[in-house]
Structures are given as structure tokens and as C-alpha cells.
Specification:
Strand content: under 5%
Number of strands: 0
Keywords: Membrane, Transmembrane, Transmembrane helix
Protein name: ARL6 interacting reticulophagy regulator 1
Mean pLDDT: 80
GO cellular component, one term: Sec61 translocon complex
Low-confidence stretches: none
Number of helices: 3
Structural class: mainly alpha
Length: 88
């Protein structure tokens, strides 16, 4: 029975080590993302804008942008109607 426990412990240790290796690269990505979100450098905001613009064609292809534009238009119209009712 001790042999079976030893095997499962070894397997668990191997899986944990493998997971650590896989996630190690993500740690660096997360640190960079944190720096970008805190705008530690003056060029980060323009870099984010350029990156966002590069994503727009792909998002539009799947209708995501159209969906959110439609939602925004509905909200604006709703607010305008409320403002008109208030003014009457």
C-alpha cells in the first residue's frame, strides 16, 4: 500500500512541476500587463491604442463591434427620450 501512495505522490509532484513550468511564462506576461495597466511608461497608452486598432477588423468580422454599437445606440436613444419627457 505504501508503494501505491509513493507512486501517487510522485505523479502529483511531476504534474505540479509540469504545471509550474507551463505557467512560468504567464508570470512574465502578467507582470508586463500590470505595468501597462499602471501606465508606467509614457508610450504605453499609444501602444494600447495601436494594438486595439489592429484588433478591430477581426472583432467586426464576428459582429462584436456591431453588437456593441447597436447597444450603445439603444442606450443613447433611451436617454434622449427620457430627456425629452423631462423637458415636456
Amino acid at each position: 500500500m505504501a508503494e501505491g501512495d509513493n507512486r501517487s505522490s510522485n505523479l502529483l509532484a511531476a504534474e505540479t512541476a509540469s504545471l509550474e513550468e507551463q505557467l512560468q511564462g504567464w508570470g512574465e506576461v502578467m507582470l508586463m500587463a500590470d505595468r501597462v495597466l499602471r501606465w508606467e511608461r509614457a508610450w504605453f497608452p499609444p501602444a494600447i491604442m495601436v494594438t486595439s486598432l489592429l484588433l478591430l477588423p477581426g472583432l467586426n468580422q464576428h459582429g462584436i463591434i456591431s453588437k456593441y454599437i447597436g447597444m450603445a445606440k439603444r442606450e443613447i436613444n433611451k436617454l434622449l427620450k427620457q430627456k425629452e419627457k423631462k423637458n415636456e
